[in-house]
Amino acid sequence: MPAASLAGLRANLWRNKNRIVAHFVNYYCPIPTQVEMGKGRFKVEGSSEQFAPKVLEKVAVRLHVPAGKVASVRAFDPDSAQPVSLPYTQKGNSVEFILPAIRIYKLVELTL
Question: pTM above 0.90?
Answer without folding.
Answer: no
